[in-house]
Write a structure and sequence with these properties.
Layout: E1 6-8, E2 11-14, H1 16-20, E3 23-24, E4 27-32, E5 35-38, H2 50-54, H3 62-68, H4 72-79, E6 83-87, H5 100-115, H6 123-147, H7 151-176, H8 184-198, H9 203-215, H10 238-244, H11 255-262, H12 267-282, H13 286-332, H14 348-355, E7 358-359, H15 363-369, H16 375-380, H17 389-403, E8 409-410, H18 412-436
Parallel strand pairs: 2-6, 7-8
Antiparallel strand pairs: 1-2, 3-4, 4-5, 5-6
Length: 437
């Protein structure tokens, strides 16, 4: 346990070099507020999953810890038994190449935002948001009751339900990030209800993947969202690596074209559905499975009288197909065109800004994207209620300008076109490396 450590007033002192040696799967230390914790056994019981906390093994995790936990005093109780010492007074607060000035100013900004109440929720906002989902669900049934099951009413019903599903996706995202209620218990409960009963997915599956994405966005081996399973090469590093190794699972120089065939159409109806069922069964997530079953029981009970069993299956498949397009374009416009690389151990602000960008604010953009057009603010402060992002944005932008960190804002159309453009650029890099290096 860090043979070079010293004793000072009864507390073991460590250097960053010692801490960084403990970053293996079975031997993990991390630092929070200069205190050193041995999390080697705790990772197995970590509510957010072992990967998200393990991604910070061997480094400072202070900003990630604060970002993910709204009830800090409660969570710190779990840290006490894990405390093994602290950093030597001669050691800097930041490890690796993290910018101390940026970190200091970012933490000061968070304190300002907290004092101004931007982490407090508007109950009316979320009540109205949930209400408009329920209205959409009822409206879809009313269309069929009134006009029957012809092609036009069926198409209208599918569009309404697709809208409800997409918007429910943004709402479950709020509960999953613990940004609605002060108490985590109620966030977790409503998260299971919305993602399970209203959408037919697993809350645990979502937590396991999505928190990793926030902890280390666009970092290979740590962000599951950039694990393309060899279907695409993304960023400017991976294409060259694949090209030099002569890896050609698919013709990547055409990936900006086949993206339209295997990207938006398949993510939700095929990939996500398979992942959900596999994870719920393999990990015995019986509560999530019950919520998942309640969604499909409710859906088929409502629509079998109109379409029968096979017709209802076709309807839900078509809805998933439409929703998948909505989901992919919105979630990828902020990330795929940005920097995608291996671990650099950057400070929280720099890491998040290199991996995210914003989309211009408008009433439609806010609603259409579930306020994920403010992706920068969301990544910096994941527990902040989304209706406050626009208030925080000017202060975040000012901080970025002070330190020369790029704060990028695009139009919605540019965000969409940049997805395709970045895939083409990456494919061209791969082809050049494949042919000439």
């Amino acid at each position: 346990m860090g043979g070079g450590g010293q004793h000072c007033q009864g507390s073991r002192l460590y250097t960053w070099t010692e801490v960084q040696q403990h970053c293996q799967r079975s031997d993990q230390w991390l630092v929070i507020d200069r205190k050193v914790y041995d999390i080697s056994e705790w990772v197995k019981r970590h509510p957010g999953g072992h990967r998200v906390i393990g991604h910070y093994a061997g480094e400072d995790a202070t900003d990630a810890f604060v970002a993910f936990h709204p009830e800090l005093d409660f969570v710190r109780k779990f840290l006490k038994p894990l405390l093994i010492g602290e950093l030597d007074p001669s050691e800097p607060c930041q490890d690796h190449q993290k910018n101390a000035a940026v970190t200091k100013d970012f933490r000061a900004l968070r304190e300002v935002l907290e004092r101004e109440g931007l982490f407090r929720t508007s109950p009316l906002f979320f009540c109205l948001y949930l209400g408009h989902l329920l209205v959409l669900e009822m409206l879809a049934l009313l269309v069929l009751w009134h006009w029957g099951t012809g092609w036009i009413p069926t198409l209208l019903c599918a569009v309404i339900l697709t809208t409800s599903q997409a918007q429910a996706g943004w709402l479950q995202h709020d509960f999953g990030h613990l940004s609605v209620f002060r108490k985590s218990f109620w966030n977790h409960l409503l998260h299971k209800f919305v993602i399970g009963h209203l959408k037919g997915a697993s809350a645990s599956w979502w937590n396991h993947l999505h928190f990793q994405h926030h902890a280390k966005p666009n970092i290979f081996g740590k962000d599951p969202d950039v694990n393309t399973q060899h279907a695409f090469v993304i960023g400017s590093i991976q294409p060259i690596e694949y090209g030099i190794k002569k890896l050609k699972y698919l013709p990547y120089n055409h990936q900006h074209q086949y993206f339209f065939l295997i990207g938006p159409p398949l993510i939700i109806p095929v990939i996500f559905n398979m992942q959900n069922v596999r994870i719920m069964l393999s990990r015995r997530l019986w509560v999530d499975l019950a919520w998942w079953f309640s969604f499909y029981a409710r859906f088929f009970y409502s629509y079998i009288p109109f379409y029968g069993v096979f017709g209802s299956l076709a309807l839900i498949s078509f809805i998933r197909f439409l929703e998948s397009h909505w989901f992919v374009w919105v979630t990828q416009m902020n990330h795929i065109p940005m920097e995608i690389d291996h671990e650099k151990h950057q400070d929280w602000l720099t890491m998040q800004l290199s991996a995210t960008c914003n989309i211009e604010q408008s009433f439609f953009n806010d609603w259409f994207s579930g306020h994920l057009n403010f992706q920068i603010e969301h990544h910096l402060f994941p527990t902040m209620p989304r209706h406050n992002y626009w208030k925080a944005a000017p202060m975040v932008r000012a901080l970025c300008e002070k330190h020369g960190v790029r704060y990028q804002v695009k139009s919605l159309w540019q965000g969409f076109t940049d997805i395709v453009g970045s895939l083409k650029k990456s494919g061209d890099l791969w082809l050049d490396a494949y042919l000439h290096k």
